[in-house]
User: Fold this.
Amino acid sequence: MVLIGSELTIPIAEAEDSGKYTCLATNKAGVAEKDIRVDVLIRPKITNPHNSTELNAKLGDAISLQCSAKGHPAPKITWLKANNKLTTDGERLPKGMHLSINGQSLFIAKIKDVGVKLW
Assistant:
């Protein structure tokens, strides 16, 4: 942080810079203050321990795909298949597929294709 006169500058914001800052002005007549809340946003990052981007499964196998991410605010996980969003509304989620409540797990009860590619 750099303080020059009445200006406080944070050249490269970090998560630790989030918080409440208070500007305090004083003179013989009294005191004035203003709080400023700083919230540093952090881009989502996939945090899966597995680096594989391809999974091969036999016809009829059940597979489970996991995806977790961190960031601020907490990222929302969305699954796509062939660029189409998979949802739990029944209309877009094919029969035999189940999404976890938080969206981090996709379970396919019985695959119909010989190879499933994850990209």
Observations:
- Residues 2-40 form one domain.
